Amino acid sequence: MVASTISLDQLLSLVGELNDQAGDDTPRDRFRNFLSTSVTSVGTVRDYVETCLGQKGDQYNRALQDLVNHAGALMGFDVEFGRYSGVTNQVGHDGLWRTGDFSIVIEVKTSDAFAIQTATLLGYINKLIDERRIDHVDRAMGLYVFGKPERGISQLEAAISHGGHAHHLRIATVDDILTLAELVQQNLLSLEEALTLLRPTGVRVGATVQILQRIAAGHETVTGQLTTYQQKVESAGNSADSVHRRVSETGQEESTMYLLTPVASDEGVGAEEIIRSLLDQGVYVFGDRTPGRTELKPGDKIAFYESGNGVVACAEVASRPERKPVHFAKRPDKFPWSFKVRNVRYFFDDPVVIDASVRSRLDRFADKDPQGAWGWFVQGTRRISQHDFRILTRQED
Q1: Segment 194-213 mean pLDDT
Q2: pTM for this prediction
Q3: 6 φ/ψ sector (left φ>0, alpha ψ -120 to 50, else beta)
Q4: Which superfamily does CATH assign the domain made up of 224-392 to?
């Protein structure tokens, strides 16, 4: 049974229009107080973030800014919320995170559609040093947090690198921040370790976070005791509800494999463009270490999850993977295994959002709190049951 949780739309309707109005009981303060007192799970924050990223307008952009700051607080940082709009003679940062004597100045961007000047965030850091709110430039960094990074993020990365600011400015996605917060909340990382990961030698933190995602996914599945989900599948045997079986050409009975695979924007190309460019050509690609790749066969089914959005497409596998890089695929060196697909369905305009109500119906969450951390479910290709596949692709009544 899922505990009653207020949706972000309901919450924003109750608190009123978010703005920088001063006072003790303003919409801004009511919203932030609610987050502080009532939103203790990163899973709920992730649900709210996905709502923000699926909508347009200042109300959702401002809510996203506060949600990113709240994720920092859940990690253990001492968080100072910033202003929604800049004003003359005041530091216009979106958030200030502190731990010990180190500070992170946050700049939240819903997208990278507009040119970003690194001088602005660097100026915030210098102003905070002048005001003695930051001890020293070597004990501070600026962090850009993007909701939907697409093409402009590569230009910002180049500006940071070429401008000699790699030791002071970093780039992350909202998903990166939420993943770190989930790992801290699950006691897989400490706050100090999270801070270390936010301060690597490179510009982006995404590559390091992806390694941690795989570690977390492995920790979640490799346990000394079978999960309720595994027990259900194993005890179901030939049940048509959990495993659909067919006879192969060799006369061996085979089961249909159902996969959920995530797709994120990459090197300036949006997730939707990546998915369509492949599926429109009747093909898809996997990497050397993609789970399930060696077992994939005709008749298997794949659902595609667009990071920060929801399940947006599905397809049936039409051939076994071969090591034949597709020339029009993004980064064929990273995804050298290609296979044919058929019966493609798209629902980008109405994605299946994996919110708490959906999670409560999935076999994969049978032994988990559907309102708890759930990023692990969409961070890497994983096998799911037929029942879950049908729910995630709107084939279940």
Answers
A1: 75
A2: 0.81
A3: beta
A4: ph1033 like domains (3.10.590.10)
